[in-house]
Amino acid sequence: VNDNTIASNGLNGVLVVNNSVGNTISANSIYGNTRRSINLNNSTSTLALPNDAGHLDPGANNQQNWPDVTAVGQSAFSTQVDYALDTQDGTYTLDFFSNPALASPAGKDYITSTSVVVYGGPVSGSFFLTGALDNLSMTATNQSSGDTSEYSPMKAAITAPAATVTPAQLNFGT
Fold first, then answer.
1. Which of 18, 32, 68, 152 is the most buried (most CB within 10 A)?
2. How does 25-41 read in b/e, with b if 16+ C-beta sit within 10 Å?
3. 142 — pLDDT class (breaks 50, 70, 90)
4. What does the mean pLDDT of the chain come to?
């Protein structure tokens, strides 16, 4: 499921059932659904499935862990997203989404993707996005198996304070 808009469904946006694996869900706009935008266990909850250490669960898309958005910093021109991914060794595609005015995990506005390699334990990092973006969420897709996670819980941006310069701080070489 790639490059689609899936919105305002009475249940889930995308439901991956039973032990179905290899379902890549990437670069979509999925939001405004009554339940989860991506649901890997047919739960009636609107909350993301909890992650587990090392990700060793059977089930839909092998219950792929979602990236944890640990912090979002914002300036007038850019947004820094700090994340952590605790999953099995391999190469993963991370998709980034902005969700203006949404309250549950979703991916309304697809922004971009990047690849990360997990080896020997969790990986963490920072990614810089152009523009002042808010309510960020992510998904992780195992490039080998094609399994995509549910959306991470959204994280609001913390806006960097504007620099203030007083006349006393100015020095024009006098």
1. 152
2. bbbbbbbebebbbbbbb
3. very high
4. 88
